Amino acid sequence: MALRLLALKYKSMPETYKIANEQKLSQLLIDAGFNFAAGVPCGVFKYLIQHLKDNLGENHIYATRESEAIGLAAGAYLAGKKSLVYMQNSGLLNTVNDISSLLLAYQIPVLLIISWRGSPGEDAPQHFLNGAITLGVLDLLGIPYRLADKADLPAIVDFANQEFNQGKVVAIVIKRGDFE
Fold first, then answer.
1. Model pTM?
2. Rounded to an integer, what distance in angstroms lies between the CA atom of residue 46 and that of residue 15?
3. What are the distances in angstroms from CA 155 to CA 110, 147, 148, 149?
4. Structural domain harbouring 48
5. In this structure, is residue 179 part of a structural domain?
């Protein structure tokens, strides 16, 4: 019985770290002035989303599609908000036109927080193709990005904040397990 309890304790440790690291990233973003968030929920960063929802209140909106979140973030920016959008990388691919013809064309800065499904080492075959092209799509769009690193979250948020403040669309890309 004691071994089983010990095993349960250590099994939950990665989840405890995941919660703490995702909440830390969310708080760093809020502290950097990001005060509007919209997106399509993803389990890869569910605790980050929950923290944003809890802290931004009515300035957090769940979207039914990523294009909707992009439009909401653009409108919020035009109303004086500092916007971020969260989505899976499949959503990034769905919003290439919205990003290029709205955000980039009109120089509307938005922080994209993207879960990188199908990244190297992931075993979900339905995500492999999208995973293989995700970073290339960001490069082709000219969107600067950083891969999430739980040991360097303040520097990643500083990078995103600087790019945003220069009027750029910028991205933080998060792989499954990055926060454990």
1. 0.91
2. 11
3. 18, 11, 10, 9
4. 2-174
5. no
